Amino acid sequence: MDLIDRKIIALLQEDSTLSNAEISSRVNLSPTPCWKRLQKLEANGVIARRVALLDPDAIGLGLTVFVSIESGDHSQAWLETFVSHVSAMPEVMELYRMAGEVDYLLRVVVADMPAYDAFYKRLTAAVPLRNVTSRFAMERIKSTTAFPIDVTTRTRIPAKAGSPAQRQEKRHV
């Protein structure tokens, strides 16, 4: 990605409703080349999707819980079952496989403590777990979905190995 591509995605991270005309004006590009860049960024998987970001408190999901999970089983079959069950739970916003003392970390959002208790019971009934530790957020101090994008350096950023953008580049070689 060159500097113009990075400026485009930085703008979209802040406001995905910007029109092509507005984006092209802000990056000093005419509309057609800007639109072609947007299409390429989407085709290459740089822009995964455009969504509306909601305020969890405004929709009644004010309790955030970070759930650390230790597994007693590290087999492929267990992992597939675990991922299948946890991915299907709408309260789970993020799921990470970790290095260190815990095996998995979940970010869960629910309305309140009874809702979390119901989630916890479903989670522990779904697959065998060695240990589950819940940490409750008292206050959200910073929350962003925008990645830090360098919009000052002209250096081209190569696609990461195995990324959709790199696979697309290989097809055109």
Keywords:
173 residues; alpha+beta; Alpha-Beta Plaits; 4-stranded antiparallel beta sheet; 4 strands; elongated
Give structural notes:
The chain has helices at 3-14, 20-26, 31-43, 76-87, 113-126, 164-171, and strands spanning 63-70, 92-97, 104-110, 131-136. It is α+β, with helices and mostly antiparallel strands and 173 residues long. It has 2 domains: 1-53, Arc Repressor Mutant, subunit A; 63-136, Lrp/AsnC effector binding domain/regulation of amino acid metabolism (RAM) domain (Alpha-Beta Plaits, 2-Layer Sandwich), CATH 3.30.70. Strands 2-3-1-4 form a 4-stranded antiparallel sheet, with helices on one face. The radius of gyration is 20 Å and the shape is elongated.
Seen as an oligomer or otherwise, the chain set is single chain
The geometry reads as elongated
The CATH topology of the largest domain, please?
A: Alpha-Beta Plaits
User: Quick one: CATH class of the largest domain?
Assistant: Alpha Beta
CATH superfamily of the largest domain: Lrp/AsnC effector binding domain/regulation of amino acid metabolism (RAM) domain
Task: Work out the count of structural domains.
Answer: 2
Strand content: 15-25%
Please tell me how large the radius of gyration is: 20 Å
Low-confidence stretches: none
Q: Whole-number average pLDDT?
A: 92
Q: Major sheet, described briefly?
A: 4 strands, antiparallel
CATH architecture of the largest domain: 2-Layer Sandwich
Proportion of helical residues: 25-40%
Number of strands: 4
Please trace the helix and strand order, writing H or E for each element: HHHEHEEHEH
- Structural class, from helix and strand content? alpha+beta
